[in-house]
Write a structure and sequence with these properties.
This protein has 119 residues and is an all-alpha fold. It is built from eight helices and no strands. Helix 2 crosses helix 3, helix 5 crosses helix 6 and helix 5 runs parallel beside helix 8. The protein is globular, with a radius of gyration of 14 Å.
Length: 119
């Protein structure tokens, strides 16, 4: 089985927002928005390859990958990331938490769930 990372990286190893958009059947602007990457970067390949933008994309994919074992598909994991309010965070979505700079809290929450903790 091809991993999500393998399917969304370009030949140079950079995460491609365009490939993410194709994978999740969504517009490029939505992918950039959900990862906290400026939409204006979408038309500038060098800006998409910056360390900060690649980091944002990577963090988003890491969380989606972390959820993947609990849902039926990549698309459901993507939908969870974008729209599932988490009570432990005051009913804020994982996407919003990441944009607020709290990606590690989401990852720790998912780690706790995977070890049998309560949501």
């Amino acid at each position: 089985m091809i991993s999500l990372y393998d399917s969304v990286c370009d030949k140079q190893g950079y995460i491609s927002p365009k490939k993410i958009a194709q994978h999740f059947h969504t517009p490029l602007g939505d992918v950039l928005h959900m990862a906290g990457v400026p939409v204006s970067a979408g038309s500038k390949p060098d800006r998409l390859k910056s360390t900060s933008n690649q980091g944002r994309l990577k963090t988003t994919l890491e969380i989606i990958n972390q959820v993947r074992p609990y849902v039926a598909s990549d698309l459901q994991a993507y939908a969870w990331y974008r729209s599932e309010p988490i009570a432990a965070f005051g009913n804020i979505t994982p996407e919003a938490m990441v944009k607020m700079g709290k990606a590690n809290a989401v990852k720790q929450y998912l780690d706790m769930i995977s070890m049998g903790g309560f949501a």
